[in-house]
Design brief:
The protein has about 450 residues and is of the alpha+beta class. The chain has a domain at about 45-255: Probable tRNA modification gtpase trme, domain 1 (Gyrase A, domain 2, 2-Layer Sandwich). About 25% of the residues lie in helices and about 25% in strands. The chain contains 13 helices and 17 strands. It has helices at about 10-15, 20-25, 45-55, 75-80, 125-140, 170-175, 220-235, 245, 250-255, 270-275, 280-285, 320-330, 340-350, and strands at about 55-60, 65-70, 95-100, 105-115, 120-125, 145-150, 160-165, 190-195, 200-205, 210-220, 240, 335-340, 375-380, 380-390, 395-405, 415-420, 435-440. Helix 6 (about 170-175) packs across helix 7 (about 220-235). The N and C termini lie far apart (about 45 Å).
């Protein structure tokens, strides 16, 4: 019997709630960053400057789960659940694994690395890992999996340390800190390097649009690796990246880090909801924003909606394939960046100094809401949903990622974003006045990607 099965299930919690939407609104959650990583080491503007101009070290060891998948059937279960192609997925390769429900709606994703013939590691948020764990536990697979939860919900040390070294000087730092030559590996491939006498997986990756590396190894070696990188990096103006400066990086890359996982409806998903616990990530996901619907499926997205169609391959059977074949042929929405009107943004903060109820403001450079869904209008008709948003210090702009109807996705298109929650039971939403913000469509990613 699974750990989840011994507790109240997600399905039981849904049965007791008025609706899935109200349950997620009442969850009232924000991102909780672990205390082991500071909000700021110098200050968030200096740290974001270093991202673009010099080099930073980001510690991701504590805010993500790691899942180890092993066994003769490990590849089989991954192929069944992932939209990605696995042709040529040899040891030393990685991919952003995308998983969907039978209707082709997005459940979750994670960075998947093949570290052995029958061994894989996936890192990220919980939904994809839980979906994979469920299939291994309940299916006829000769495979095992272990989820090592993020440290904010787990008293134990992380299984792996995970560091990112990124920015224009990242390559110089890595060449100097590694013992022996730095492997010349393509983007989203990894090699083994030695740092301070310890073997480390070095994945070509990065959240800054520059050459970067994500380093992973046993957690007990983490402090040695960190100290070595910072010592070498001092000559290259390295900065430690606090959580406050890390948060906005994904927005410019077009990576929405949180979505409503498409699991709350449908008879085909009921057994999974019975397996999941009422204390799971999926039970506590928080919904906020100007878009409001009584139907939770209106919050679901597909990989096509969020710009992941290039990670859908019809060279194998996978959960959701039939629905996605139709959608790829006739996409309704795609992913863009919205650039918010500067004067309208200034008005949000100016309203704090005026009489009456203020407009909704947000923390800089990024609010810690997990599940924002804001209406985007053209001629008063809803044409999309704005999701992750941030203040881009390098551009002096507020931007957001938007899933928008294809016919309104051309760069330069003018749209209107409805800002501020309507009726909500979210206890963390302060009293405010809803307003409209002019915005302009731009490409996503919203940066020159030199990774």
């Amino acid at each position: 019997m699974s750990t989840q099965a011994q507790k109240q299930s997600l399905q039981a919690a849904l049965n007791a709630a008025d609706s899935p939407v109200e349950m997620l609104q009442e969850a009232g959650g924000r991102w909780v960053w672990p205390r082991e990583v500071a909000r700021e080491y110098t200050n968030w503007m200096d740290e974001l400057r270093a991202v673009r101009e010099t080099c930073v070290l980001a510690d991701l060891s504590h805010h993500q789960m790691d899942q180890v998948i092993e066994g003769p059937d490990a590849m089989s279960v991954l192929r069944k659940l992932c939209t990605n192609s696995f042709d040529g997925f040899d040891i030393g390769k990685a991919k952003q694994a995308i998983m969907c429900n039978p209707d082709g709606k997005f459940i979750g994703d994670g960075v998947l690395q093949r570290i052995g013939d029958e061994s894989f590691v996936m890192s990220g948020k919980d939904p994809a890992a839980n979906w994979l764990a469920y299939h291994i536990e309940t299916g006829d697979y000769d495979a095992t999996e272990t989820i090592y939860p993020k440290s904010s919900v787990n008293p134990d040390d992380p299984h792996f340390f995970t560091y990112q070294v990124q920015g224009p000087n990242a390559l110089d730092v890595m060449q100097e800190v590694t013992e022996g030559p730095l492997p010349d590996v393509p983007f989203f491939n990894f090699g083994t390097v030695t740092i301070d006498g310890h073997e480390v997986r070095a994945l070509r990756h990065g959240m800054a649009g520059e050459v970067g590396f994500e380093l992973q190894g046993p957690y007990e070696h983490g402090e040695d690796i960190k100290d070595a990188i910072l010592e070498v990096g001092e000559a290259y103006d390295i900065r430690r990246l606090g959580t406050r400066a890390y948060e906005p990086l994904s927005v410019k890359l077009g990576w929405v880090t949180t979505h409503v996982p498409a699991i709350y409806t449908g008879d085909e998903m009921r057994d999974y909801r019975e397996w999941l616990g009422a204390d799971s990530y999926e039970a506590k996901y928080s919904v906020a924003g100007s878009f409001s619907s009584d139907d939770i499926t209106d919050y679901y997205v597909s990989p096509v909606d969020i710009g992941y169609e290039h990670m859908i391959a019809f060279d194998h059977d996978f959960v959701g394939r039939e629905a996605l074949e139709e959608e790829v042929e006739n996409p309704r929405r795609t992913r863009v960046t919205l650039v918010w009107d500067v004067d309208d943004v200034v008005d949000l903060f100016a309203s704090l100094f005026e009489e009456g109820t203020p407009k909704k403001t947000f923390d800089l450079p990024r609010d810690r809401w997990g599940g924002h869904h804001d209406e985007v209008l053209v001629d008063d008709e809803v044409v999309g949903h704005s999701k992750s948003f941030c203040y881009s210090y390098s551009d002096r702009e507020v931007i957001s990622i938007c899933s928008i109807d294809v016919e309104h996705s051309d760069p330069g298109t003018d749209v209107t974003l409805v800002w501020g929650d309507g009726e909500t039971k979210n206890p963390l939403v302060e009293p405010h006045e809803q307003t409209h913000i002019d915005a302009t469509v731009a490409p996503s990613p919203y940066l020159d990607d030199a990774r």
